[in-house]
Amino acid sequence: MVVVGGGQAGLAVGFHLARRNINFVILDAYARVGDAWRKRWASLRLFTPARLDGLPGTPFPARAGALPTKDEMANYLESYAGHHKLPIRLGTRVEALSREGDLFVLIAGNRRFEADQVVVATGGHPNPQRPDFAAELDQSIVQLHSSDYRDPSQLEDGDVLVVGAGNSGAEIALDAARQHRVWLAGRPTGSVSPVLYSRPTWWLASRLITVNTPIGRKMSVQLRGKGTPLVRIREQDFAAAGITRVPRVEGVEAGKPRLNGGRHLPVKTIVWCTGFKHDYGWIQRPATADGHVPAHERGVVLSEPGLYFIGLPFQFGHNSALIDGVGRDAEYIVGHIAAAPPKAKPLEV
Fold this sequence. Notes:
Blueprint: E1 2-4, H1 8-19, E2 25-27, H2 35-38, H3 70-83, E3 88-89, E4 96-100, E5 103-108, E6 111-115, E7 118-120, E8 127-128, E9 142-145, E10 160-163, H4 167-176, E11 182-185, H5 199-208, H6 214-226, H7 235-240, E12 244-246, E13 249-253, E14 256-259, E15 269-272, E16 276-277, E17 307-309, H8 323-339, E18 347-348
Parallel strand pairs: 1-2, 1-7, 2-3, 7-17, 9-15, 10-11, 10-15, 11-12
Antiparallel strand pairs: 4-5, 5-6, 6-18, 8-16, 13-14
C-alpha cells in the first residue's frame, strides 16, 4: 500500500492504515513534514478554530477557539507523524503512476515502487492557475501567484492589484494594504457567519452538507460556480483598509491589466489569487486520461480497483478539503481497503 502525499490527508490515511496493521509507506516530495504550510504567506492563520484542526487520535494542542498560524499547523503535522510513527519517505516526488499486471508502479526520479493499492493524497489543487493573457502584460509589472506570495517585501513600490476576491485574495490584499495602495478585482463571494464554527452548527453542517443530501449536492454545485465564501473578513473590511474594489480583470491593454468595462490600471505588481487546477496527468490510467479527477464514490475509484483519492473539495462533505474533514474520509477509504487488504508489502525495486 502506497500513499502519495504526506500532508494532512495522507497522514490521516496513514493513521487509519496503521490502526488496522496494514503495511504501507507514505511518499512525500517535501524535505520536512508540514512544509506545504511553512511555504505559505507569513501572516496566514487557519480559518477554522483549533478544536477543528486536529487529525484522528491527536487534538491540536491549543485553546479550542484559537486560530493557529501556518507554522503552528506545520509543526503539529510533523509532530503527529512522529508521534504515530508513520512511515514517510521525504524528498520523494512521485512523477508517474502506472500499472503493470496486478501492481501499480510509481516512479520517483530514479526510484521505482510497486504496490497493489495506492491512495492519492496530493490535494485537490496542486498547480497554480493564472489567465493566459497574463503573458501579455508589460514585463516591468511584477507578477506573483498566491502560492509564491510570502509578505509585502516582494511587492514593487507603487500600486498593487490583487486578482481574485476569495479568501486568499482577501487576506493577501489586507496584508499588502499595510504598505501599498491596493486594488482588489473580482466578484464578491459572500461571507460565512462566525456562527458556522459554533459546536452545534458545525456538527449539524458536517452531517447535513454532504453528497448524500439534496442540500449538500446543491451547495457543492454552487461553490464550484461561485467560489468559497469569505471567512473572518467582510466587504466593509476592505474599505476600512483603504482597498479599492474593482470588477474582474478581463484582458490586457497597452501592457496594463484591463478591467471589465474597459478601464486599465497602471499598477506595479499583480498578485494572482486565481486558484489552482487539477492535474492528474501523471497518473497513466484510463480513469484519469484527461488529467482531471476521475469519477469516484467518496474517493474510491470504482473503474480502477485499488486506486483511491482523498483531500478533494466536497469529496464527501463541505469540509472534505479541510483538516477537520479528512479524518472521516480517511476512515471510510481505509475501511474499503481493509475489506480487500493489500496482498503484499509496498516494495521499492
